[in-house]
Structures are given as C-alpha cells and as structure tokens.
UniProtKB/TrEMBL annotation, chain A:
Descriptive protein name: Phosphate transport system permease protein PstA
Keywords for the protein's UniProt record, in alphabetical order: Cell membrane, Membrane, Transmembrane, Transmembrane helix, Transport
Membrane-related topology note: Multi-pass membrane protein
An example Gene Ontology molecular-function term: phosphate transmembrane transporter activity
ABC transmembrane type-1 domain mapped to chain residues: 223-434
UniProtKB/TrEMBL annotation, chain B:
Known function: Part of the binding-protein-dependent transport system for phosphate; probably responsible for the translocation of the substrate across the membrane.
Protein name listed in UniProt: Phosphate transport system permease protein
Membrane topology: Multi-pass membrane protein
Keywords for this protein: Cell inner membrane, Cell membrane, Membrane, Phosphate transport, Transmembrane, Transmembrane helix, Transport
Gene encoding the protein: pstC
Cell compartments where the protein resides: Cell inner membrane; Cell membrane
Single Gene Ontology MF annotation: phosphate transmembrane transporter activity
Length: 445, 485
C-alpha cells in the first residue's frame, strides 16, 4: 500500500505535500513575527532618538545681532572714578538706550531699510536680556568704558525661531510678541549680514530664564545641581553599598535577619520612584527640616534609590571572585576581614565600579522624586560651591526638562529637547566608561 | 565652631591617634613588633576609631535632633496675634528663620553684636538693615517675631557651642581610653575587625531603614489624611474633584481606572513585542544579530523616563491625535491614555524581553531536542514545548512589567493629561495615581489640608499595589527556577 497525502495524491520527496507546506509557512510566519518584534523595538529606538535630536539640536544654535556700541563715559560713569558702586547705579534702562542708539546707527550705516519702524519695535527684535548682558559685561570690566565695544546681542526668541523655521509669517500675524513687519526687517538684517547664527554656549552655562525670554534660558544651574547630587550619591552610596554587600555576601550568617535584608533589597529595587519622593518629602523636608529644592535632599533620596542597584552589582562581582583566593589568604594566616579587604575586594573592584557608574547613570536621569522635593522651583542663582552649595536651591537636568515642557512658549519645547540631548550625552558617556571598564578588567578564573 | 571645622578637628585628632597608638605599641615592645598581638597599624586604627566614630555619631544625632527641639520651642513662642490674616504659624516660623539667617549675614559683615541687640528691639530698623543685606522680608516684622528670631539665633549658637564641647570631649575621652589600652597583649585586630563588622551590619540595615521610613511616612501621613477625610469616601467615591478651598471629592476610582487603563495598553504593546523579540533572539537569531540587537533593545531600558515623556508629549501625542483620534472622531486631545500607554509599552519592551530571554534560555536543550526528534518544526517546538515550560517565568516577568507600568510617573505626567475621568475612550485624556501625587504635592508646602495629604494615601495605595505584584512575581519566578536546578 502506498502512502497518500490528504488530497489523495502520491507523495513526492521532491515536492512537499500541502501539510508540510502549511507547517513550513507557519514556521516562516513565526520567524517573521520575531524579526518584526525586534525590528519594532529598534525602530522605536530610532524614532525616539530622531525625534529628540530633530527637535532639540536647534537649541544649540542661536541668532545674534552684532553691533558696535560706543560706551560713553558721560553716561555710564559720571564721576569718571571707575567706582563700581557708583557705576552700578546705571540701570538696564540706561544700557537699553545705548543699545537702541547703536542699533539704529548701525542699521543706517548698513543701509538696511527699516520701513520707518519705531525704535521700540526695532528693540523688540532683541532679547530683553540684551541690556542686562551689556551691563554685566561693563561692570565686570570697567576698562571698556570710553571704547567702542563690538557687542553680540541675542535676538528675541521669536526672531530666533523665525530663522530656525519655528516661527512663520502666519504665526507671527497671530502673535502679540512679534509682527510680520518686524520679521521682514529681521530678514533684511540677515541679508545685510547683521544677524548671524552661531553656536549657543549660553545654553550650557546660563541659568533658567523667565517665560518672556526663552532665548536666554540655559542649563547652567541644572547641570551644577545634577553634578552636586551625583557627588552626594557617589560619596554615600558607594561605601554604604559596598559595605552592605560585603556583609551580606561574605560575613552574614544565614538567618532570618539576613533573609529579611535580602528580600528588602530586592523589593526596594522595584518600589516606584515617586514613592521615594514621598519618603524624602515626609522624612527629610517635613521631619528633619532640610531645605526644599536643595541638592542635599535630592542626593539623599537618589542615594537610597541607587543603593539596591549597587548592592546587587557588588554582590555579583564579589561572588565571581573564586573561593581559592579566599582560601589562600586564610591559609597564610590572614583573618577573614583581611582576606576580604586585602584580596577579594581589590579583585572585585572593577565590577563594583561598573555597577556604580550604571547606578549613577540611572540616578542622573531620575526626575519623579525630585519633583516632590521642590526641585521644579525657578532658580536663577547659581548655587555656591560645596559643601554650602548642597543646601542652596538648585535644579536638575531631568527636572529642568519637565519644567520647560510646562511653559507655553514653543521655544521652551525646543530647549527641553536640547536639555534631553545634553542628558543623553552624559548618560552615553557614563555607559561608555562602564563598558570600557568592564572590557578592560574583565577576567575569567 | 562650625560643623566643618569641628569635623576637621575630629579628623585631625583621629589621625594623631593613629600615629600615637601605633608608636606607643611599637615602643611598648622596644621595636620588636613580633612581640605584639597584632600588626602595629591595628593599634593605631583602634585609637583612631575610638576617637572619631563616637564623636561623629554624636554630632550626627545632635544635628538631626537640635533643629527639631529648637523649632518646637520657638514655635511655642509665637503668639496667635503674631499670625496675620492669611498667614499660618509655619509661614511666621519661616520668617523667623529668615530673620535669624539675615542677622547672621549682618554679623558676618561686621555688625557688632550689641548693635544687633538694639536692632532686635527696633523691628522697623531691623527690616531696612536686612533689606540692605539682601534679605527681603514681605511682611512687617512684629516685635515678638523679632524677639523669637533672636531667641532662635541664640539657641542655635548655644546648641552649636555645646555640640563642639561634647563632641570634642567624647573624642578626647575615646582617645585616652583607647591609648591606655595599648599593650603588647591587647587584641587590637579583633577590636578593629569587630568595629568594622558593626559598621558593615549598619550599612546593610540601611535597606531595612529605608523600607521602614517609606512605610512609616506613608502610614503616618495617610492616617492624618483619614482623620480629615473619611476613608469610605476615598475608597468608594467615583469622583475626583479637589478644590483647594475645601469641600473636595477625593475618590480614588477615577485615578485607579486611569492607572489600570494606561498599564493595560502598555502591556498590550510590550508583552507581545517583548516576548516575540525574546523568542527570536534566543531561538532563531545568529550570534551576530543577537550581539547587536540585544544591547540595542537594552538601550531602551536605560533611557530615562523623562525622555519618553517628552517623546509622548511632542511626537506621539500629536501623531495619534492627527491620524487616529480626529479622523475617527474620538477626541481632540493630544494627551491621552493611548499616547501614554503606547510610549510606556515601548519603554517596557526591554524589561519583558530580557527577563523572558533569560527564562527561555534556562529551558534545557534536551526538551527541544526531544521535540525536534519527533519531527516538530522549530516554531512548533517553541510554541508547544519551550513556551509552556517557560510560562511561569514569563508570567513573573509580565507581572514585574505591570508593576513598573503602574508606578511610572513621568510618561503619564507628560502624556496622559490631568483630567480624572471614568471613560472607555482610549483617546481621551485621563489621569493616574502617580500624576495626582505629583500635582497634589508640587508647589504647596503646607500639610494640613486633605487636598495635599491625599497624596500620601495615594502613595500608600500605589506602594501596596506594586509591592503585591512584585512579591507575587518574585514568588512565581523563584518557584519556577527551582525546577531545573
């Protein structure tokens, strides 16, 4: 009797029957599903990065209006004694007048047709920060008085947005802060080479700015605040985490107490970050009376959040050190402590450092608990240097992103994406360092 | 003496103790260190530890307790009439602290103490002087508040003084005690190691203390909340409408509904994609593909959630609104449950995939070989042998992802909106427990109204919820793992 397939045909080795075909097709489909899933994940990553880069890269460029300002001694320093206290009496209004005159003169010299625009509207092309900027420059260097300073005034956020394609003539017509006529003049100025676009260092160094002057908002305070918090996290979580791991991995007897600690650490790693924020608010701020918005509180709560990560990584690298090392140390008469601190710990150190860097990277990107301890506050002053600076109000990179997304002006959305780029660059660097450390010190026993 | 200076002095004493202890030990055996019980360094370390550790511990406790005590005392000094209309005791207290801080600035700038005393008696002059020093006060200073500030300042100074005296005393006592005990027979190493062990145990109990702190702060403040607001209304009311004037409805159901809805959508995105990715990477992919794709997926897990939040707000939200919600007539809002859910799903893909990957890899090869031997294709093996064997572990992974979804904050804050609604439409803005915790607690520092305290009750609910899921997930994963070991 010959075998027959479902359709009653004779089977052939060269030609698969229908059922085999169906099964092979199912196999292929399943495989394709797998490829699609991996592809989808990668695609999401690409989209995410493209969206952030596309929205944020423009915040690293800024349009400036270049002009020569004669710093008139009669106006800026009436006494002529270069006495800073007397000079400080000239307010930004005074400097604004200087800029106004210089701007008009420059436009006449260059032959830019302003269409009879009022000086006030012309000044509207400049950032409201320009006068304060000029004043700071002069006060920082009184010798400039009497000379003619080539001054790069920041353009207004809308003008900046016009050259970056964010603001159009149509949107300007609906905007109370800028008019299409002003943009026409700005375009003429750009054609005459007066308005230039350059790299925006101030985005990295300036403090946050108010709703009205997005062009001068920067990340300076946030970067400093994040750096302070990372310092606190590193100084606290590395020793505490390593000490805890040493105890649990090397010394602890197996009893209820150590079991409890272990379960606790596993659970802490999975507690939602906002709950840590609530803890910080109730314990550090309400109960202990530490100041709000201060890096010390942020650093403490991030330490508590990072500890489980560091402990888990440290225990893994302690476990990876072979017992023969310990036995050899004990064999020549070292105590248990000596074997750990002189032999096991140095060998485990690269792994511990890698884990610590990864823990720090996570802490750097954390924002939810910081919202609760008031780090969203508007901070204009740089915190002083540590340790006093730990108690000054500051901001943090991820929280700065959040507070910029809450503002109405679309220029802040661009800045938020720019801040994300800075954050991602920091994270990437830290991860790269961790990978290099791991590669470099990886050893197999 | 400032805290920094005191710490430096203590460290200096400890260093001195180390050198002296070591020298004393070596001298006591006339340089022949073989006579000593321990290495000479251990004798030095004993003295240093006994000098520094108790003193620092005292300093820490003191610094934590002193402000609480002084605060309690000075707050008691403020009379009801000092508290102006629209003000509270806490606000007056912060004025007191500002004045005290301002006076310190004045003194640091060279104002003599007797002039400060005169200023305190004359609040108006005090206010102008403080304004000159850069400390701006909103309200007029009442004489009583100025006096309270002076007392506050004096008590802080006295406290500091006593702290310096007692910490230094303790350090010297420890120094002498330890130095006296340095003899050749003294088991210095055992003492030092015992000390270190205590420190190690202390470090590992930080985890316990943190959990305790979380539970205590949540329970304590929630209890405050439930005294002001009936628990029945919180757990059974279907409206969430906080009004900061009072008389608000604080039912948790709209928030729970939003949370579960967002998490559900996130899991619908993350579980199939993550699982298929894990199966592909562990069963099909070549070594080269795996070495590229796995880290690439794990990058998704390393990206901070604020980045996903911004992605949801600026890219995904408007996209879903323009291409789905508006054409389908389902809504006009760019922040919606769908936005937050999809973006959160993307974030959770790597959690599901790497946990499942581990679990699928742990299924013994013999099971697969057996399946191939009876003629099954690879996909049939995966579907009918590997997957069922890995199922408990995968369930654990999904539960962990769910607990992350429930606790996630930034994506929903930026992506899901703030309207507390019980709706089925996924393109409508809804809100979650975490969003409301943030919005009830930011900007307001007063903890007397149910509108702010409710955040702690919400936090407690969230904590219990996620803790339950995690414990369940851990239990399932552990039980499963034992099968092959």
């Amino acid at each position: 009797m010959t075998a027959v397939d479902f359709e009653g045909r004779k089977p052939s080795l060269l030609e698969p029957d229908a059922r085999t075909k169906a099964r092979n097709a199912a196999e292929k489909r399943f495989r394709m599903l797998g490829v699609a899933a991996v592809g989808l994940g990668m695609l999401a990553l690409v989209f995410l990065l493209a969206s952030v880069l596309g929205n944020g890269l423009s915040s690293f460029r800024q349009t400036h209006i270049e002009m020569a300002i004669p710093l008139d001694e009669a106006k800026l320093d009436k006494s002529g004694a270069r006495d800073l206290a007397a000079m400080a009496k000239v307010t930004t209004v005074g400097y604004g007048k200087l800029i106004e005159g210089a701007l008009q003169k420059m436009l006449e010299d260059r032959g830019v047709d302003t269409g009879g625009m009022k000086p006030k509207d012309l000044m509207g092309l400049l950032s409201k920060e320009a006068a304060a900027d000029l004043r700071d420059t002069v006060l920082a260097n009184p010798d400039l008085i009497g000379t003619t300073l080539t001054f790069n005034a920041m353009a207004n956020g809308r003008v900046d947005g016009y050259f970056k394609g964010r603001v159009t003539m149509e949107s300007a017509a609906r905007d109370s802060n800028i008019s299409p006529e002003q943009l026409v003049v700005a375009q003429r100025m750009a054609d005459a080479g007066v308005i230039k676009t350059g790299f925006n260092w101030k985005f990295l160094t300036n403090p946050d700015a108010s709703e009205l002057r997005p062009e001068s908002a920067g990340l300076g305070v946030a970067i400093l605040g994040s750096a302070y918090m990372m310092m606190i996290v590193l100084v606290l979580s590395l020793p505490i985490g390593v000490a805890a791991s040493i105890y649990l991995e090397e010394l602890a007897p197996k009893n209820r107490w150590t079991d409890l600690i272990e379960i606790n650490i596993a659970n802490l790693a999975a507690v939602p970050s906002i709950v840590f924020g609530i803890l910080a608010l109730a314990l550090f701020i309400n109960f202990l009376g530490l100041p709000q918005s201060a890096p010390i509180v942020g650093g403490l709560v991030l330490t508590l959040m990072t500890l489980p990560t560091i402990i888990i990584a440290t225990r893994a690298s302690l476990k990876a050190v072979p017992p023969s090392i310990r036995d050899a140390a004990l064999g020549v008469g070292a105590s248990k402590m000596q074997s750990i601190f002189h032999h096991v710990l140095p060998l485990a150190m690269p792994g511990i450092l890698t884990g610590t860097i990864l823990g720090l990277a996570r802490a750097l990107g954390e924002s939810a608990p910081l919202l609760l301890i008031g780090m969203v506050a508007f901070v204009k002053d740089y915190p002083s240097s540590p340790p006093e600076g730990f108690f000054d109000p500051a901001s943090a990179l991820p929280v700065q992103v959040y507070s910029w997304t809450q503002r109405a002006d679309p220029a802040f959305a661009e800045r938020a994406s720019g801040a994300i780029i800075v954050l991602l660059v920091f994270l990437l660097t830290m991860n790269a360092v961790a990978i290099i450390l791991r590669r470099r010190f990886e050893r197999r026993w | 003496m400032t805290v920094g200076l005191l710490s430096l002095v203590l460290l200096g004493l400890a260093a001195l103790g180390f050198i002296m202890g070591r020298q004393r030990a070596v001298l006591s055996v006339k340089g022949d260190t073989r006579e000593l019980h321990s290495l000479p360094t251990y004798y030095g370390a004993t003295v240093a530890l006994f000098t520094a550790v108790p003193a620092f511990a005292l300093m820490l406790v003191w610094l934590l307790v002193q402000p609480v005590l002084i605060e309690a005392h000075v707050t008691g000094m403020i009379l009801p009439e000092d508290i102006g209309a629209g003000s509270t005791r806490d606000l007056v207290m912060s004025d007191v602290r500002r004045i005290a801080g301002g006076v310190d600035v004045l003194v640091a700038r060279g104002t003599p103490e007797d002039e400060v005393a005169r200023l305190v008696a004359d609040p108006a002059a005090l206010k102008t002087r403080l304004a000159d020093a850069g400390v701006a006060l909103a309200a007029d200073v009442s004489p009583h508040v100025a006096e309270a500030a002076a007392v506050y300042r004096a008590e802080v100074a006295t406290g500091r003084g006593w702290l310096s005296v007692s910490a230094l005393g303790l350090a010297v006592a420890g120094f002498l005690l330890a130095a006296m005990r340095v003899t050749p027979a003294f088991r210095a190493r055992n003492v030092v190691e015992g000390f270190v062990k205590v420190l190690l145990i202390g470090a590992s109990s930080v985890a316990i203390l943190t959990t305790l702190g979380i539970i205590l702060s949540l329970v304590f403040e929630s209890w405050h909340f439930f005294r002001l607001y009936p628990a029945k209304d919180f757990f059974f009311s279907l409206t969430w409408a906080p009004k900061f004037g009072g008389g608000s409805d604080l039912g948790i159901w709209p928030l729970l509904w939003g949370t579960l809805y967002v998490s559900f959508i996130a899991l619908v995105v993350a579980v199939p994609v993550g699982l298929m990715a894990a199966i592909y990477l562990s069963e099909y992919a070549s070594g080269r593909v795996r070495s590229v794709a796995k880290p690439a997926l794990e990058i998704l897990a390393g990206i901070p959630s604020i980045v996903y939040g911004l992605f949801a707000l600026m890219t995904v939200g408007p996209f879903l609104r323009d291409w789905f919600a508006q054409p389908l007539g389902l809504g006009e809002s760019s922040s919606s449950v769908m936005t937050a859910g999809v973006v959160m799903g993307i974030m959770l893909i790597p959690y599901v995939s790497s946990l499942s990957d581990d679990i699928i890899n742990a299924v013994p090869q013999a099971l697969r070989d057996g399946s191939y031997a009876i003629g099954a294709t690879q996909s049939e093996t995966v579907k009918q042998v590997v997957f069922p064997a890995a199922l408990p572990g995968i369930v654990g992974a999904v539960l962990m992802a769910a607990s992350r979804a429930i606790g996630e904050t930034m994506i929903v804050v930026l992506g899901a909106g703030a309207a507390a609604k019980l709706s089925l439409n996924p393109f409508e803005a809804m809100t979650t427990v975490t969003v409301k915790i943030v919005s009830q607690l930011t900007g307001d520092t007063e903890f007397a109204s149910p509108e702010t305290l409710v955040a702690f009750a919400l936090g407690l609910t969230l904590f219990v919820f996620t803790l339950g899921l995690n414990v369940l997930a851990l239990a399932i994963v552990r039980k499963y793992r034992e099968q092959y070991e």
